Every structure is written in structure tokens, then in C-alpha cells.
Amino acid sequence: MLDRGWTIFRIRGIPVKLHITLVLFLPYVAFVTSSQFRAIAEAVGLPRSELHLPPLVWGVILAIGLFVSILLHELAHCLVALSNGVRVRSITLMMLGGVSRMERDVRPEREAWMAFAGPLSSFGIAVVCWLVSLLPLLAEVRVAFLALALANLVLGAFNLLPAFPMDGGRVLRGLLSTRLGPRRATSVAATIGKGMAVLFGLFGLLSFNVLLVLIAVFVYMGAAGEQGRSQWRQVLEGLPVAEVMNDRLGEAHADERAGEVARRLFRQNLAGALVVDGEHEHAELDPDHVLGVVTAWDLARPELHRAPDATVGKAMRTDVPRVHTRDDAAATLDALVNGDAEAVLVLDEGEHVVGLVTPADLQRALALLGAAGGRGR
């Protein structure tokens, strides 16, 4: 949940997403900063008469500066990951931090260093901004850099708290994993995160601090989400994708009407359809000739109902991850749980498409395996 958002741009092919918490937080930062900018200026000896821009303008500028700081914070995680040969799947910018989703798990000691790189970069930005504030610039510009230095100092310190979803929780898990193992280490870090969230929430309620209450909710959801991710990975560990996939697939063409394909899927009790080119209809499907995937939920989108002539091409998903039947489900279906994909194509050893895994298929497998006490039983 916490790593879902709107893709706003890409850096070296990595999608950078904007989470709703940051969308709501930045206007708050702009408002608070604009209301306090004059007070900060007077605190460092700058009279109000020397302010050339309205405080609201400086509030917006500092909010943008905080956005850039959070982006640089997450890019630091990514640079360390890439230097260790780990591909970054996505970056999600959130309130007081973000989430960099890696394509695969890394060794505990590397995860600890990757997590620590974010706060370290924030402290580095704080030092640079403080040094710039000492230069002979316009007085209000120096005040703005000083405020941005303080913001990055808070950002780095907050993310070092030893609890999920902050970087400090990942550092803690990395250090504990060598002794407790990844599962117990995750459980400990997530439990600490929930405990801190409760303390934040109680203090926020007692002090009537709405922002602190929102931070408490943010921390609790992040800790619970990481704990849930660890639990579902434990249930699916060692299970091949073939036992989770759905092979009830049909075929469709991009120029077919969405309504006609939906009726065909309903009559034949199919979970979805592969959108193929005309040359490969009713043949063994080479993934190079699969243009995309369309599921029942894709065809049920309201905008398609309002356009009777809408084609499957407008509903299909083209950026679909691909796995193999023998791949470990716990390691390869992460994209479904994290919201990075709505479907995963499954290929056999001959590189032919043999099935599909959707969030519904994954939830069904987790529910049944959980009720059965795990795969081993």
C-alpha cells in the first residue's frame, strides 16, 4: 500500500511515483513555512523590512526544496543498490521519506548499508545548505537555505528511527538478521515500529498535534505492511509459480470491442485474455507476439462502459512482468503484492505463455495455504 502512487517521471528507466501522503504534506509544509518564515528571519537577525518576497512564495520554494531533498534521499538508496548489482524496480516519494523497491532481496549487511545511505544523504544535504547559508548572498536567501538545512536534518533523523517503514528499521533488520534470521528480524523491527506509532499517536492526541497523529498512522501502516509482506513470503516460500497461476486464459485482438471480449470471457469462464497479433491466433504463444494482457477487472472499467466502441487495446496492460513455472513464487510475485503490476505472465521451459497470475489468484493461494497451515502440512 505505501509504495503505490502516481508515476510522475522516470530516471534511467526507473519509475518515480508520488504517494498521496506527500501530495497532502507539501501544501502543509508550504503553509507552515510561510507562516513561520518571518519568525525564522527575525531569529537570525533579519528585519522584516529586508524581505523582498512574500512569505508565501518562500513557503512554496521551500516545499519544492523538500520534495527535491526527498528525491535525492531515495536516489541515494538506488545508487548503492545499483552498485551492488541490485536492480531498482520503482521509487515512491512519501511524507518524510520514501520507498525504493528492489527487484530482489539482498544480504542483510548490504540492506543495512543501502538503508543507511538515505539518511546519510539527507545529513549531507543539510551540511551543504548550511554552508551555502554562510555565503554573502541575499539575507532572505540565506535564511531559506538555513531552513532547508534544518528540514533535511529532521528528515535524516526521523528516518533513522529503528522502526519500519523508516530506514532505521531496515538498518535494524539488517543487523539483526545475521543472528535472528530475516523473518524474526523483520518481526522485531515491525513490532518496534508499531510501538513507536502508538506512542506518536498518543502524544499527538494529547498535544492536539494533527501532523503527529498522521505520522503515527503512516508509521503503523508501514510496519504492518512490511510484517504482512514477510508473512506471505513465508507462506509461498518454495512454492513454484505453476501452483499459483491461472491457466484459464483466452485470446483477443487489440482492435476487438471490449464488450465482445468481456462476453466471451464470461461464457467460457475465463479469468482473462492474452492480446495477440493476428499471426498467432490459436497457436502456442510466443511471448514476443503477446501484445498485452486484459483481465476481467480491466474490461469492467467505467470508462469502457461509457464508450460502447472501445477496443481491447484501450484496456490491455502492456508492461507485464514475466516469470517461469518453476520460479519460486515468494521471490517472483513481489510485484503483485507491492502494486507494481496487476498481472504476471507465466512461461514454460519452451518460453511459451501458459498462464497468468493476478492479485486475486495470489490472494486465493494465500488464503487456502494459510488455512491449511502452510504448504508443508
Describe the structure.
The protein is of the alpha/beta class and 377 residues long. The chain folds into two domains: 6-236, no CATH class; 241-371, Roll (CBS-domain). It has 13 helices and ten strands. The strands form three sheets. It has a four-stranded mixed sheet. A three-stranded mixed sheet has the order 5-6-7. Strands 8-9-10 form a three-stranded mixed sheet. The mean pLDDT is 78.
The overall pLDDT, averaged over residues, is 78
Question: Could you give the order of the helices and strands?
Answer: EEHHEEHHHHHEHEEHHEHHEEH
Helix content: 40-55%
Note the beta-strand portion.
Answer: 5-15%
Number of helices: 13
Low-confidence stretches: none
β-strand number: 10
Number of domains: 2
Structural class: alpha/beta
Characterize the main sheet: 4 strands, mixed
In whole angstroms, the N-to-C terminal distance is 30 Å
